[in-house]
Amino acid sequence: MVHNIARRVVIYLKPPLSFEDMVSAGTVGLVRAARDFDPSHHVVFKTYAYIRIKGAILDELRGWSFMPDNLRKRISMAHQLSRKITEQTGTAPADTELAEKLGITLEELYETFENARAQHFISLDGFGEDAPVLSNLLASAHPVAPEEKIEREELIEKLTEAIRQLSERQRQVILLYYQQQLTMKQTAEILEITESRVSQLHASALFNLSVKLRQWKDGRL
């Protein structure tokens, strides 16, 4: 379980973090889950362990999420501008439009997306430690408690609408990676593009989804 969760995080990592760091953090979460698990709460251990492992990995990501002030400012400006355009037009701006509005090159924009990946992982796959993750929402439905059903269905509806508004290539990457659970390499082979291009499309899609879902959480959608 630890390796499976860590494997889904690898693409969001920037140096000095590595897959081994995520496995190490997840293992700590598993050990703590085993130590703290109380069967009297009528919770399945696998579910409880998953939450603790995921939480430990998210904590590790947050702990290393430092970045230069100028890069943090650029990410913030990109979010604000994308949000403004989305609110005005109803659709996310194309990467070329966003880069032009920010006064940077397309390559610099993709670099910004790449550096923001860990933040997007936390916001999309971590609304809370016990929240449904993006991959789970896009995969086959799992049984959920009645009290969670309405909130989950609303989240799926908003997420589906946000994905529908992505470009065709972005949408393909998201669905192949999260719904079909293919690797970046497999996705690149299917789409007949380079793996680095898949990574760019993935980072761009996560950025746009993050903007849309934050609007929804703030009550603007």
Overall CATH class of the largest domain: Mainly Alpha
Termini separation comes to 35 Å
**How large, in whole angstroms, is the Cα Rg?**
18 Å
Total of domains:
2
Any idea what the CATH architecture of the largest domain is?
Orthogonal Bundle
- Report the mean per-residue pLDDT as an integer: 78
Outline the biggest β-sheet: none
Q: Give the overall silhouette.
A: globular
Fraction of residues in helix: over 70%
Oligomer: single chain
Unreliable runs: 126-132
Say which CATH homologous superfamily of the largest domain is assigned: Winged helix-like DNA-binding domain superfamily/Winged helix DNA-binding domain
Q: Name the beta content range.
A: under 5%
**Number of β-strand runs:** 0
What is the structural class?
Answer: mainly alpha
The CATH topology of the largest domain turns out to be Arc Repressor Mutant, subunit A
* Element-level helix/strand string: HHHHHHHHHHHH
* Tally of contiguous helical segments: 12
Please explain how this structure is put together:
The structure is a single chain. The chain has 221 residues and is mainly α. It folds into two domains: 1-66, RNA polymerase sigma factor, region 2, helix turn helix motif (Rna Polymerase Sigma Factor, Chain: A), CATH 1.10.1740.10; 68-221, Winged helix-like DNA-binding domain superfamily/Winged helix DNA-binding domain (Arc Repressor Mutant, subunit A, Orthogonal Bundle), CATH 1.10.10. The protein contains twelve helices and no strands. α5 (95-102) crosses α6 (106-115) and α9 (146-164) packs across α12 (195-217). It is globular, with a radius of gyration of 18 Å. The two termini are 35 Å apart.
